[in-house]
Model the fold of this input.
Amino acid sequence: MTDKKPGFFKRLFGGETPVQPPAPPETLPAEAPVPDPVAPTPVPPPDLVPEPEPVPLPGPPETTPDYIEDIEEQAAAPTQPLADPTIFVPLDPSTVVEVPADQPRQGWFTRLASGLKRSSDQLTGSITSVFTKRKLDAATLDELEDVLIQADLGIETAMAITETLRRDRFDRDVTGEDVRAVLAAEVEKVLGPVARPLVIDPAQKPFIILMIGVNGSGKTTTIGKLAQKLGAEGKSVMLAAGDTFRAAAIEQLQIWGQRTNAPVISRPAGADASGLAFDAVTQAKAEGRDILIIDTAGRLQNRDELMNELEKIIRVIKKVDPSAPHATLLTLDATTGQNALKQVEIFGQRAGVTGLVMTKLDGTARGGILVAIARKFGLPVHFIGVGESVGDLEPFTAADFARAIAGGE
Ligand SMILES: Nc1nc2c(ncn2[C@@H]2O[C@H](COP(=O)(O)OP(=O)(O)OP(=O)(O)O)[C@@H](O)[C@H]2O)c(=O)[nH]1
Ligand SMILES: [Mg+2]
Done:
């Protein structure tokens, strides 16, 4: 972290020396329980654990009688009043820190390059040390391949880069600069097809976005940032506090709702998440909202019972709108490294992921993993997060990312 440009961190964290990891408590009232976003999600009480058998997705909406009973039971449970955005003021608004959205902002590329500096420094530093005035020989290419694989780019991309160099430059003098250019070109080639914007279909009213991912991967923060972006485009956005396991998680989303003027549908902690999702979709439809974004509890992809619960949430949403969710976004923490590949695979199988958001690209040396994910799964990457502030989410562009990770200025 010490290799950051001070301006970047000063803007992000308000000081010269970044504290890692940056914590969200300034957004919370002092007397409220402080949410620990990276704490493991508690296992729900046995009566909240959904039925164990996995249901493949996508599929026709389920219509078994016991399921309908379940929904009716949920619908009968008390729900907090919804229409008035001020309903979620168990919080003292004076304790909510303003989001510095209107601060003068650096250009996006500068911020991206600052964010990816650790990834690019590691990568280009290693490349430079391999290629200090050397003729390109087999040993050098092997060394380079190792460096690229260690940077999480994936074996295929590492091999593609070394193959290009072998073909074009073998036995000739090659500089680190030359290699970086080949690296940037290859990374852009891989990322180009997946850099696709999140398209909100206006025919879907509401357009329902389900946010999923492992604990602490940035779901709730990304929802807040998205609500801000979409609201600024004139869309009427509603949020649903589908992480019903923790009171602090509900409160965290309510704060984002206050910041972004988006009403938040919530139920008391401990309520069934699929019942909440049912209420939220019904309410958003009734109010003619443009967009509903549903938060979910963090869950590790290898926790089968929690993945079952996620499938149940999706089935319940389909009860109200068989075409929903219209986007199922998986947030990936860039600092996770190789495990992100497993997350994409399992969440994709169980929940039908339609797009990715990679968060925390600021301050990680493992940004290269996005390249490996893109090559393996070809899923759209809609946004990347480079900080905790509301403005630190940007549409993903392949050329910028490639240039930044290759150490371009
Ligand atoms: N530096 C940085 N921090 C981020 C980014 N996105 C989220 N965070 C921080 O990461 C932490 C976890 O974010 P949350 O949004 O609470 O994550 P979550 O997936 O909702 O977590 P759970 O609900 O516990 O599963 C918070 O401190 C966020 O401020 C990002 O792009 N960069
Ligand atoms: Mg959360």
Summary: Residues 82 and 342 are 37 Å apart (CA to CA). Residues 37, 219-220, 243, 249, 295 surround magnesium ion (ligand 2) (CB under 6 Å). The longest strand covers residues 327-333.
